[in-house]
C-alpha cells in the first residue's frame, strides 16, 4: 500500500477532517498540510451536497495526497476510524480480495473513493494515525474548522 522508505523524500504531516449536516446532507472537508523542514503549511477545503461524513473524511485525505507534486513520506492524522482502519486494519485489502464485498457479502460503500484513496496513497510512503476528534489537537481542530466553514459556505452561511 505504501512505497518503500526513501529517506530523501520530503516529510509531510497532513490533518484531515470532514463535517456533515445530516448524514446524508451538505458536507465539507478540510485539510491542513504541514511541511516541517520548510516550516510551511497549506490549507485546503471543499464541500458537496448531498454527501455523508465518511465521504467527506475520505475526500479530505484524497485531496491532500493529490496536491503533493512528488512522492513524500506522509503521516495522515485523522479522527476517522473508517479511513485509518481501511488501511491499518486491512479492510481495503480484504475488500479487494472479496471483489468489493464486505464479510457480510454486502457491497462496500464508497468503492470509488476507496479506489481513488488507494491510488493517491500509492505514490507516497504513508503512515495512518488516528486521533480522538474534538479533543483540542491544533491540527485536527484546524481541519475541522475548514470543513465546517466549507459546509457553511455551501449552505449560504446558515448555521
Description:
The protein is an alpha/beta fold and 159 residues long. It has 5 helices and 5 strands, in the order βββαβαααβα. Helix 1 packs parallel to helix 4 (111-122). The chain is globular, with a radius of gyration of 15 Å. The N and C termini lie far apart (39 Å). 34% of the residues are buried. The model has no long low-confidence stretch (mean pLDDT 93).
Please write the string of helix (H) and strand (E) elements.
EEEHEHHHEH
**CATH homologous superfamily label:** Ribonuclease H-like superfamily/Ribonuclease H
Which spans of ≥5 residues are poorly predicted at pLDDT below 50?
none
**N/C terminus separation:** 39 Å
Backbone structural class: alpha/beta
Count helical runs.
5
Q: Classify the fold: give the CATH topology.
A: Nucleotidyltransferase, domain 5
Query: Largest sheet, order of strands side by side?
Result: 3-2-1-4-5
Q: Under the CATH scheme, which architecture would be assigned?
A: 2-Layer Sandwich
Describe the largest sheet: 5 strands, mixed
Q: Please report the first level of CATH classification, the CATH class.
A: Alpha Beta
Radius of gyration: 15 Å
User: Percentage of helical residues?
Assistant: 25-40%
Count of DSSP E strands?
Answer: 5
Query: What's the mean pLDDT score?
Result: 93
Percentage of residues in strands: 25-35%
Gross morphology is globular
Instruction: Tell me the count of domains.
Output: 1
